[in-house]
Each structure stands twice: as C-alpha cells, then as structure tokens.
Design a protein that fits this description.
There is one protein chain. The protein has 157 residues and is mostly beta strands. The chain has a single domain, classed as Jelly Rolls. Helix content is 0%, strand content 53%. The protein has no helices and twelve strands. The strands form two sheets. The protein has a six-stranded mixed beta sheet with strand order 1-4-10-6-7-9, with no helix packed on it. Strands 2, 3, 5, 8, 11 and 12 form a six-stranded antiparallel beta sheet that branches. Strand 2 and strand 3 form a beta hairpin. The radius of gyration is 17 Å and the shape is globular. 24% of the residues are buried.
C-alpha cells in the first residue's frame, strides 16, 4: 500500500497551530501531523495524561479521526486514537491518558513499555485517510500540556 505525500501549510497563532493539507491524489493512504518537541518543555513524569484543544472549520466532512503519536528517543512510537472527528465545527478539549497509548504496529521497542522520560516529541494529526483528490483537510491544535486528573468531591452540606 502506497502512502501519498500531502502538501501542507501550518500557520502559528498564539499557542495554536492551524494545519491545512491538500490531497494530491484520491483513494491513497494520506497523513498530516503537527509535531511538538517535548524534551525539556513538558514534565511528563508526574502527569497522568496529555491535554490539548482542537477546532475544525465549519462544514468540513472529513471522517478521519485525530491521532496522537509519542516518539521516544531510540525510535519507538506509541499511538492512540482520540475519538475526535475531523468533521464538524466544534472546539473540543481532548485528554489522552497514558494507558491509551500502545506501541504502533510499525514500531519496535525492546521493552514494549512507554517511558515518559524518553519522550522527545508529540505529534497530533491524522493518518490512514483515503480521501478525494484536491480535498482540503484542516484542523487547529493547541500545544499539548501534561496534566493530572483528579476526581472532584462534593461540598459538605
């Protein structure tokens, strides 16, 4: 199966990046990711998840979903589907717990475990999409943040 290169532009806003990809061929595997270097920028050790925000332009009907890839030093890549569709026009905050990330099928890791201290970059985007020629796929994403998830408590009455 061939993968098709997607010409893209990325526009940088205030803590956001807007990626626009134009498919040059239809019915071939395409992908587009925005990558964020994380070495020294994010402390992933105490975090339980990644948090980021996305928005999709009104009227976009692309059925693909956003993916998250974590790249370890040494080449291992961990992947998860976010459940976030590239169709619609809503602004969404996504949380990606570490437990959702699995070693990508094409990747190798001698110990098979995600080591957050070895993550050097985080990529957010789409892949495995077989769209139509000249179709534009657009998304805006914020820089990911490392977060802790805490259960709320009810106030005493």
């Amino acid at each position: 199966m061939a993968t098709q290169l997607v010409p893209a532009t990325v526009d940088h806003g205030v803590n956001t990046w807007r990626a626009t990809g134009t498919l040059t061929k239809g019915a071939v595997d395409t992908h587009l990711f925005v990558s964020f270097g994380s070495a020294g920028l994010l402390d992933l050790s105490a975090a339980e998840a990644l948090r980021f925000e996305t928005s999709i332009p009104a009227g976009q009907k692309t059925p693909a979903q956003l993916l998250v890839l974590l790249h370890e030093r040494g080449g291992a890549i961990y992947l998860t589907h976010t459940g976030r569709s590239l169709a619609g026009d809503e602004h969404v905050t996504s949380y990606v717990p570490w437990s959702s990330l699995k070693l990508a099928g094409w990747s190798k890791d001698p110990d098979g475990d995600l080591d957050r201290s070895q993550v050097e970059s985080i990529s957010i985007g789409w892949g495995g999409y077989f769209g139509t020629e000249r179709e534009k796929v657009i998304f805006t994403v914020s820089q990911p943040q490392a977060v802790r998830i805490q259960a709320g408590t009810r106030a005493a009455r």
